[in-house]
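pipeline stage [seq->struct] | target=Heme chaperone HemW | organism=Candidatus Accumulibacter phosphatis | residues=409
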Amino acid sequence: MIIPLLPQARLAAIKEPEPRFRSPPPLSLYVHIPWCVQKCPYCDFNSHSLQVGSSTAPTAIPESDYLAALVADLESALPLVWGRRIDSLFFGGGTPSLLSGAGLDQLLAALRSRLTFLPGAEITLEANPGTVEAARFAAFRDAGINRLSLGIQSFNPQHLKALGRIHDDHEARRAITIAARHFDNFNLDLMYGLPGQTLAEALADLDAALAFSPPHLSCYQLTIEANTAFAARPPALPEDDLCADMQDAIEARLAAAGYLHYETSAFAIPGRQCQHNLNYWHFGDYLGIGAGAHGKLTLHDRVLRQMRWKGPEQYLAQVAAGMPVQEEFAVAAADLPFEFMINALRLVQGFDAQIFESRTALSLLSIEGKLRQAEQEGLIERQRQRIVPSEHGRRFLNRLLVGFLADAG
């Protein structure tokens, strides 16, 4: 047997084989609306205040121009998703509820005329209680929105003020009442670990939310993110042990109320899990359009990631020039396992080996050493062909990944 000896230069030039995907995963559509009435001090999302200078009166969003840009953006991306069905649609932001009902209806009609949607596809719109009007919610429902996500955060006036929210506790309750009247599927966002918050106050917020019997709850711990007002002027937050007690108490109370804890920060009545976010966690595909939107698309030989131009004015100009994408790159085959795990291990029930192999075009055996190490460190458990995060691993991931994938809701 002759073993060929290659010069070092030629060895360096040899590349690992590229992945080959037999079929793409489910595909979601994400639409980013980048404006808010004002920027919250904890927010590191791509959102832009409508308040100019010292004025408290917000300017109007350039709705018609932005909707036209979204359609043009989508049309430029269609060759990447020809023949694929859209399983879910999510309008995130920013504050998508700043759109008019007529504008949203026009946009949904344009999306449906260019893409094939799964019958009964979940279509979610994020809303801020401070921008709620009963007539607008009815118009959103008539346009085709079938799931609403309300950014409540707290029912405590003091904590809402500390968070820079534009709504008070009365507006929060009114918004939920209106949402429940028009939508049988809605989510409430709550935050805990707020400045000066006690365990009793965190549970009082949860009880106030449960009084409305929401089908879905997202409960996040407040963290200080870079490039935010809180990062520049950090508030005094509860100690880590107290935040851990809040997390334990919230999980216990929701379990007792019949909610399924299916993802690190997500709880749902069985059957009401957010399908759009589940696709993220299972490393599915999503086409992102709009200012700063991110996307992940599986082609036959690579996983492609994209990011649109972030600034609204810059985005509008670049779309007009036929160049909506600011950054685009193929994920290295060696990075696919990590990218898969950072998503899938957020799921309380973990994932099947088959999902890993179909979404990465790699065998689970290819990362056996890393899995064994994670198991020894108590981060994961194996259940035959299923990988499940341990309690310790889930808490570790919760600390590590809070705020990751800002499009989830």
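stage status: PASS
auto-comment: Residues 302 and 330 are 6 Å apart (CA to CA). The chain has 15 helices and 17 strands.
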